[in-house]
């Protein structure tokens, strides 16, 4: 197996940037899509939480995931605790796998991210089934697959502010 | 890199257990009791500006789209609308005459006059992403005196019912929501029944009708007004399929909602006279 990207020396991440990225993800989740697009569109809050759980476990963990789950429950009009429970489980899995995931190359990360997000969605579906007895339909899971494809882009963007500015002319 | 080389607080497993228990507690109390309504209202008010921001790009694209309409199309549309307006005027006159006649007849029969309920115009803010229920959020709430249980209709028929009211928005559960009951009447013969939403498809289910019931495909179902929520006579659905299998006690009747339950953007919220009657 080919190991992932060279271990770079990165600048410390600013807590403000983490908060900003999560806020932006939340806005993206609020976008009113209809029909098929709604299912293809990935859960950005989950993806960004997942990224920070893997890379900054000391700052973003199960507690933060739970709080954002509660926010998503209000935004989506689901039962209180539905997203919260699913996000907590996702954050826990991310904390368990984070060392191995940060070493993986991007194509291996794709499978990991998709599977973790699918587990998160399966938790949501199980809660929905037991609370309301309605199955969401298979299209509901499409979002996790797009999320896997978008993951490299997201990982690149979220890492940008941490890249040291290599400007040989300055020093 | 390894910030958790030395233990920092409880282990992930302990934390996960704690948050799972907290979620389950919230789930049970939210599903069965009403304690969390205030909390949901508070968070919803805080989120409301963000929802409006998220709506902005969509509204912007929509306005660009309408600018791009060709002039000829507008002219054609205008002519068609004028023609339709004329026809509607005629129908309206007939309707007014009929209404007057109806009032007189009702007085004759000593029947109670129905009071036209005041209505609030509202716009759909978002279709909820929750795949387990059919709900929408509209942009009128407590500040427009919307009450829980009010009927919601569009220009073609019944859409649903207000489920909960927040300061600036309210949640509407659609008639296609699973198990949502709507009392109806068959327009052709006045037969009373109740239609239920399926939840998973856009169809409605007319339950508990005997296999020899006088209902045919194409029959229009209108509200019966028996629930005290929907005014009588608003179209609800059209019967699409009647399956009379003598092996079962009841016939299986599928109906298609008349209102664009999934397409509307502007709706009318009718304030019911008995707001204490909620869903079910």
Give me the number of helical elements of chain B. 3
Number of helices of chain A: 7
Domains of chain A (count): 1
Give the largest interface pair and sizes. A-B, 45 and 46 residues
Helix share bin of chain A: 55-70%
Helix-strand topology string of chain A? HHHHHHH
Helix vs. strand class of chain B = alpha+beta
Give the name of the CATH superfamily of the largest domain in chain B. Answer: Rod shape-determining protein MreC, domain 1
Please tell me what the overall shape of chain A is.
globular
Strand content of chain A: under 5%
Description:
The complex is a heterodimer of chains A (171) and B (280). Chain A is mainly α and 171 residues long. The mean pLDDT of chain A is 85. In chain A, helix 1 runs antiparallel to helix 3 (44-55). Chain A contains seven helices and no strands. Chain A has one domain (15-161). Chain B has two domains: 12-67, no CATH class; 117-274, Thrombin, subunit H. Chain B contains three helices and twelve strands, in the order H-H-H-E-E-E-E-E-E-E-E-E-E-E-E. In chain B, strand 1 and strand 2 form a beta hairpin. Chain B has helices spanning 12-32, 37-67, 71-108; strands at residues 119-127, 135-138, 151-153, 158-165, 170-174, 181-186, 192-197, 204-206, 220-223, 235-243, 252-257, 266-270. With 280 residues, chain B is of the alpha+beta class. Chain B is globular and about 80 Å long. Chains A and B meet through helix 1, helix 4, helix 5 and helix 6 of A and helix 1, helix 2 and strand 1 of B.
Question: What is this entry, summarized?
Answer:
The complex is a heterodimer of chains A (171) and B (280). Chain A is mainly alpha-helical and 171 residues long.
